[in-house]
Amino acid sequence: MNDLAERVEEWMVGQMPIIRMHGGTSVVREADPEEGLVVVELGGTCSGCGISDVTAQNIKRDLIMDVEEVEDVQVKVPDTGDMGASTVEGGRGGELQFSTESSDHF
Questions:
Q1: I want to staple 105 with a disulfide (CB 3.0 to 4.6 A). Which of 19, 59, 77, 101 is the partner?
Q2: Domain encompassing residue 71
Q3: Which SUPFAM superfamilies match (predicted)?
Q4: What is the pLDDT at residue 22?
């Protein structure tokens, strides 16, 4: 893993503990320091969650502000129909957990 990817992973752990607290997972799929592009994928209970779009926007905004060479952030969140996918296997958050609750469960 490159240095930027490691720093983004550390940032995610420190800045976004709410993801894990709610049973979600995240993984850095790409971190290109030359392009300034970071791709983060959310999974677990983030899939189909009614506030995952807010979480994604917060990650985009804050990551660009906090990590100097990051200029563009893409956050991928599988929709409810993809909840069985293992796209975020190995991401932080421990075992993948999938919500069967509606998006208004908060």
A1: 101
A2: 3-81
A3: Fe-S cluster assembly (FSCA) domain-like (SSF117916)
A4: 86
Q: State which residues of the chain have pLDDT below 50.
A: 81-106
Nearest Cα to 106, choosing from 52, 40, 29?
52
For residue 85 the two structure tokens come to 């996918």
CATH classification at residue 56: 3.30.300.130
**CA angle, 44 as apex, 61 and 6 as ends, to 5°?**
50
* Rounded Cα gap, residues 62 and 96, in angstroms: 25
- 87 in any annotated domain: no
**Matching residue, tokens 């799929």:** 29
The tokens of 103 are what? Answer: 């998006």
Q: Cα separation of 47 and 95, whole Å?
A: 14
Question: Does residue 86 lie within any of the structural domains?
Answer: no
Position 34, amino acid: E
Instruction: Look at residue 96 and tell me if it is in a domain.
Output: no
Q: What is the pTM of this model?
A: 0.71
- The CA distance from 74 to 64, in Å, is 11
Report whether 30 contacts 37 (CB < 8 A): yes
